[in-house]
Amino acid sequence: MRHKEFNATLLEAIDESMSELIGQRVLASLYSVLENRYDVTRDELPYRLHTAYRLLREVFGIHATQTISKNIIRRLYQKLSLECEDVAGLRLTEEVEMAKKKLSQNQTAARHTKGKRRVPK
Questions:
Q1: pLDDT tens, position by position, 85-110
Q2: Residue 3 and residue 5: Cα distance in Å, rounded?
Q3: Neighbour-count burial for 7-38, b at 16+ CB within 10 Å, e otherwise
Q4: Which of 1, 33, 75, 119 is deepest in the core (most CB within 10 A)?
Q5: pLDDT value at residue 117
Q6: DSSP secondary-structure letter at 118?
Q7: CA-CA distances (angstroms) from residue 54 to 8, 41, 73, 93?
Q8: Where are the alpha helices (DSSP H) in the chain?
Q9: Is residue 120 part of a domain?
């Protein structure tokens, strides 16, 4: 999966999770605040997750933000067909980086396995 495809999948996971948890109207308001206050558009979110996380903390508090982040990560892992491990204490940005690494490892392993053919006994 290319970087651009990963980011599109991440945005889908964010949109779906946030819509489910807080509703489409509140999500639209958050995107508006991100753009007006922090100069971050929706499409820039994959590159500025730390800013979005900060806004979520300001609006919802740390515990709700952690719940929202976990939901986003679970959705992302599901979309990427990865097994989601619950690692306590990681921030959203760290969890996304972990997903990138796992995806890369899985793709590398699949390429190596694909090149090897089984020899019949």
A1: 776 777 888 999 999 998 888 777 76
A2: 5
A3: bebbeebbbbbbeeebeeeebeebbeebeeee
A4: 75
A5: 55
A6: P
A7: 21, 15, 17, 11
A8: 3-22, 24-38, 49-60, 62-79, 92-115
A9: no
